[in-house]
Amino acid sequence: MAVDTERVSALTRELLIAIGEDPDRPGLRETPQRVADAAAEFYGGIGRDPEEPLRRTIDVSQGPAPDTVSTGAVLVRDIRFRSICEHHLLPFAGRAHIAYLPGERVVGIGALAKVLDIVAARPQVQERLGEQLADAIENALEARGVFVMLDASHECLTMRGDRRPDATTVTVASRGELASEAARAEMAAYVIIGVQNQATDNPVSGRE
C-alpha cells in the first residue's frame, strides 16, 4: 500500500494551523507537499516483503574443490541506516553490522543493505528492526546463524525531554549458531575492531 501523499499534505497543513502557524505564508506554502514527499520515502517499506532482495542467491557448493561450502561468517560492517521512531515520529539513525553463517547459498552483500532499507522504512523501534532483519536473513537464506548489531542515535532522546545529545542505543539480534554467548561475543569483537581501525585511519583533526 503506497503512502497517500495527498492526504499527508492536507493533514500537514492542518497541523501547521494547529500549532499557530500560517500555512499560506511564503516559507510554508510548499511545506505540506514536501512533508508528503518525505513521508513517501520514510514509510515506503510498509507492506513490502523484506526477503525480496534475498531471493537472488549464489550457489557456493560448486567451487573449484568438491563441497566448497563456507565455514565462517560473512560480516558486513558500518551500513548506515535511518528510520522513524513510532513513539514520537522522530528520526533515529546509525550504523548496522550484519553477519550470517551461509549454508550452500550466499547473496551479494548489497542485498543485506537493501533488506535493512526495507525494514527501516516504516514506523519502528530499534529492537524490532534488528529482529525483523535477522528473521528475514535466516528465513530467506536458510542461514546457519545470523547476528545483527545496531548502534543508533535517537532524536526523541537527543532533541526532546532530558536532551542527551551524546547518547546512542545498541541492540543485538541473533539466530542459530550465532546466538550463543561465545558467538555473540566473537561477532561483537569483530565489529569493535572495525570501529577502532576506522578511528585510527580517520583521526579527528584540530584537537588541542
Summarize the structure in words.
The chain has 208 residues and is α+β, with helices and mostly antiparallel strands. It folds into two domains: 5-42, GTP Cyclohydrolase I, Chain A, domain 1 (Orthogonal Bundle); 52-201, GTP Cyclohydrolase I, domain 2 (2-Layer Sandwich). The protein has six helices and seven strands; from the N terminus they run ααββββαβαβαβα. It has a five-stranded mixed β-sheet, sandwiched between helices. A two-stranded antiparallel ribbon has the order 1-4. A hairpin with a 5-residue loop joins β2 (74-85) and β3 (91-101). α1 (5-18) packs across α2 (31-42). It is elongated, with a radius of gyration of 21 Å. The protein starts with a helix and ends in a 7-residue tail after the last helix. 25% of the residues are buried. The mean pLDDT is 90. Zn(2+) binds at residues 85, 88, 156. Its EC number is 3.5.4.16. This is GTP cyclohydrolase 1.
Task: State the gist of this model.
The protein is of the alpha+beta class and 208 residues long. It has 6 helices and 7 strands. The chain has helices at residues 5-18, 31-42, 109-120, 126-141, 155-158, 181-201; strands at 58-59, 74-85, 91-101, 105-106, 123-124, 145-154, 169-176.
- How large, in whole angstroms, is the Cα Rg? 21 Å
Structural class: alpha+beta
Widest sheet, order of strands: 5-2-3-6-7
For the sheet with most strands, the description reads: 5 strands, mixed
CATH topology of the largest domain: GTP Cyclohydrolase I, domain 2
- The number of distinct helices, counting runs of at least 4 residues, comes to 6
User: Helix and strand string, N-terminal first?
Assistant: HHEEEEHEHEHEH
In terms of quaternary structure, what is this?
A: single chain
**Strands, count:** 7
Termini Cα gap: 53 Å
Uncertain spans: none
Integer average pLDDT: 90
Gross morphology? elongated
What portion of residues belong to β-strands? 15-25%
Helix percent reads 25-40%
CATH class of the largest domain: Alpha Beta
* Level-2 CATH architecture of the largest domain: 2-Layer Sandwich
